[in-house]
Specification:
It contains 9 helices and 24 strands. With 482 residues, the chain is of the alpha+beta class.
Length: 482
């Protein structure tokens, strides 16, 4: 379908109550609880980097957390968790959910866990297979489960509402069209890519960005029954900000936003503490760099993070102050496992990868070509199909979709436009990690996000199949309460 552009003005704030809500039964009370759980790894942990070519942690700039919010309408109880991590394997998500005691009233199918995609943490996916990696992954699962259990312990009468504002000045396409004569070889020695990721400012041959970002900052606000802030879940389609110090552990702007928003709307030493959460939206092809403008002077470490987080927290507070909080709304949640095919390297590509990898002398110092030879061999061992866990949540008239991929902005905008529930937003990197999710059009254009690797291996039609399944699940939860 052809998707018409969504027009936003920065000053416009959309505030929504709870349309489509069912009348609250007399014996039901809406409750909520929130908590955080520290998941900071030990120094020496391998931090994220280019296709698993990271550095070692030498210091902690700011602690990492699993930030947990539990909602209960008297009939349905569900949990939303945002974890300060680059990406988390499905096995770790499922381990964390299984560790949540049944006594909490939360079954695995009522828990949504997502990663923020900060690049200053270890990747919680199998990479090295060593004892330190396995130990941190078990620690992470345990601490996520602890956080959920603590949020359940904090359940109290609450009220809820939501709203949104456009903040387009921090989200830009990182994929740019280039003229044929300006195309550069990819790691496989081919020059057919029509787009270039992060091309830099002023590069010759650039034609323009390949996508339209989603500029919406969405706010789901929960208050105690007496009006004290309990938690705010935000959603924004920005990949991450970066600009951290070398070897530093950091939650990036996701964590800074949570801290700054707490300073704005919560009381110091509030009991239980206010919890801010910033989930990653549909940002697979979006970052915070405007390649159409000359760059400013180099920023000090963390300066850009503080700028983005501070301005988003200010906007979130403005939305928060205008929200009409409802005393009760219905909740519903549905999930499914969608099987998708794995793209395979051709016989020629596989032979190329074997030859290149056999010539690598020092596997601790890999070139880009070496990395993609290794990745080709890795994907060649994948099964023919992989299951993706997809989820849809209804909170009153609000819809929340969740997918285990780095979803592109165009897919997120299409889900918003076609969802049975209005408004709707999508949380990426949820319940697993299955790589980038380019659209079929993006696959035709090529570029980094489409290169076959453990970071991009799903079938070409995957984005359309995921979109359609999420819309189906959204209809199910929308029709679950009348």
């Amino acid at each position: 379908m052809t998707l018409k552009p969504l027009l936003f003005a920065t000053a416009v704030i959309l505030v929504v109550g709870a349309p489509l809500r069912a009348a609250a039964p007399a014996d039901r009370v809406f409750r909520a609880g929130a908590a955080t759980s520290n998941i900071t790894p030990p120094l020496g942990a391998s931090l994220d980097g280019y296709i698993a070519q990271g550095t070692r942690a030498t210091r902690v700039h700011d602690e990492l957390h699993a930030r947990c919010l539990v909602l209960d309408d008297g009939r349905t109880r569900l949990a939303l968790v945002v974890v300060d991590n680059t990406m988390i394997a499905r096995e770790i998500h499922e381990r964390a959910k299984a560790l949540v005691p049944a006594a909490t009233g939360l079954m695995p199918g009522r828990i949504l866990i997502s990663a923020t995609h900060t690049h200053s943490t270890p990747r919680a996916v199998p990479l090295h297979g060593d004892a330190a990696e396995r130990e941190y992954q078990e620690f992470l699962a345990r601490r996520i489960a602890d956080g959920i259990q603590r949020a359940v312990s904090n359940l109290a009468p609450a009220r809820i509402g939501w709203g949104a504002v456009a903040r387009p000045e921090f989200v830009f396409s990182r994929r740019w069209h280039v003229k044929p004569e300006a195309r550069v070889p990819n790691p496989f020695g081919e020059t057919g890519d029509q787009v270039l990721m992060n091309p830099g400012v002023g590069r010759a041959g650039l034609l323009g960005p390949s996508t339209q970002p989603d500029p919406e900052l969405f706010i789901l606000s929960v208050q105690h029954a007496d009006g004290r802030p309990l938690a705010v879940l935000a959603n924004y389609g920005l990949h991450y900000v970066g600009g951290t110090g070398a070897g530093a552990i950091s939650a990036d702007y996701f964590g800074a936003f949570a801290e700054l928003l707490a300073q704005r709307i919560a009381t110091p030493l509030q009991d239980p503490p206010f919890v801010g959460l910033m989930a990653n939206g549909t940002s697979g092809d979006i970052n915070a760099v405007d390649f159409s403008r000359p760059p400013g002077p180099p920023a000090a470490p963390y300066a850009r993070i503080r700028e983005v987080a501070g301005q988003l927290a200010e906007s979130a507070e403005q939305v928060y102050r205008k929200i009409k909080h409802e005393a009760w709304v219905p909740l519903a949640m549905a999930e499914s496992d969608l099987p998708l095919a794995v793209r395979r390297p051709t016989a020629e590509r596989l032979a190329w990868a074997k030859q290149v990898w056999s010539e690598v002398k020092d596997k601790s110092r890999l070139t880009r070509r070496d990395v993609y030879a290794r990745e080709t061999l890795s994907v060649a061992d994948f099964p023919d199909q992989v299951p993706l866990k997809l989820q849809a949540i209804r909170v009153g008239g609000l819809g929340i979709a969740a997918a285990p991929c780095e979803v592109f902005a165009s897919t997120g905008l299409e889900i918003k436009a076609r969802s049975t529930l209005r408004p709707t937003f999508t949380i990426s990197l949820a319940n697993g990690y299955n790589g980038y999710l380019p659209t079929p059009r993006d696959h035709q254009l090529g570029g980094y996000e489409t290169w076959l690797a453990r970071s991009s291996y799903l079938e070409v039609e995957a984005s359309e199949k995921i979109r359609d399944e999420l819309l189906r699940l959204m209809t199910i939860v929308a029709e679950s309460v009348r």
